[in-house]
Design brief:
9 helices, 19% helix, Immunoglobulin-like
Length: 523
Amino acid sequence: MNEEVQCVIFRRMYEQAAPRIPIMQISSGCPVTKLVRVLILFALPVLVSAQTSNHSIVYQGVQRNYIVFLPRTYAPHGPVLMDLHGYGENGQAEMSYTGTNSIADTAGFLAVYPDAIGGVWNSGINDEPSIPAPSSDDVGFISALIDSLDAEYRIDLRRVYVCGYSNGGFMCHKLAGELSSRISAVASVSGVIANSTASNSHPEHPVPILSMHGTADPIIPYAGTPHFHSVEQTVQHWVSRDSCTNQPDTVNLPDSDPGDGCTVQRISYTNRSGNPEVVFYKVINGGHCWPGASSNPFLGNTNGDINAGVEIWAFVRNTRLPSTLTVSVRSIDFENVPVHTVDTIALSVRNISSVPLTVGIFHTRDEYELLTMPSNPVTLDPFSSLRLGVVFRPSSQGAVDDTITISDTLQTRLQVALHGNGITTAVHIITRDNLSSAPELMQNYPNPFNPSTTIGFRIRASGFTTLKVYDLLGREVQTLVTGELGPGMHQAAFDGQHLASGVYFYQLRTGRSTLMKTLLILR
């Protein structure tokens, strides 16, 4: 990003903070570096303090926490930037380190800071045996988090971006390769792609990638390791995946902070349309650092010529997913189901475009059935969802595979793989999340709604079950279910016609498990 564009962004930030900085003057020359430093000292406490909130979702039986920064200028169907922390850290530390909130408040995007389990993302970093990581499904968690954010904030599902530092940067590369159906663009700072991640990287479409890395990084070596790609191998991995030209455009950026001990080259690779698809900021003599952040001498030189957050937002902000549809899952495994009985799993299809779509949904095998679809094809309004029940009813013993094909009038075509196994004797069913006793609480549909909605849930074993709705103050609004229920899928209707518009919580309790999600009444 050139200095003129930086000046515009930071001048707007200054104008918002001006009551706290009465003595400062912005000259027509706009000394960007000094202005950034003043904003860090004075503006950030004003912009951040009152607009951050802590949230959590339960994914695979584990509570996962995240922080949301809601800018004053955020509007429904706005973009999201997730900022992933480094090894052993958390979302709070990442928020404090990168200063992404200040940019979000000016640009109007939702800034989200998730926590990894134990402070470590399962990003392939444990290819190196000395760097342990949990076996958690963090790709699935990020996908579930997108759904949760959409339910509460009505985000633009075509503009979901992810950036990350160090271990979070590794995770960005994994998400680009394994969750391209939901991630529009990624930016990795001081992180590379692990060997195992590269082997499993199969994006469904070209994913714009930004990378920043110091040549003197003492933590993640620029030249790579036997377990991690080098920085240049990482860049070339995405140049190949994104079908970019092999002749990059290299620009030496101004050394506006000569005292930082490092300089920056911006190396851009364009796609066939001539748009920058892979951009690499080579921080010459830079360390394991987020450019523009506070320095740490143990991590090497921190570059002050650029602000990583500003460059990241400038890169990702105009990218959008090429598809017009999204689905809640890309494969469904029913595992073992006794012959002549049924098992049902929910599937949500969402129109993430701004125009109505005519959508056709098809499958071939008689053992599978789609429930709650009013017609085929069906018309989906902009940003609306269709919730389906996918039924597996085996007629004989053995494995049954099929595919649900979903297509629309704008030539988007998605597929959901189906697998189930018919058995002749009733045996214990192994669940998809390897937690045989864990219940599932579905997102209500429709959401937002007025005045009624439906809440689905699955329980694994018979037991006393309650489903209740609460307001934001924790006061019980309505009890939807109370009593003994058997295993399987269940639904409850909620009529909110007597309630005011706003966000409410619904909570499922069964056995030792408690799950909670949010719903939105919109008059």
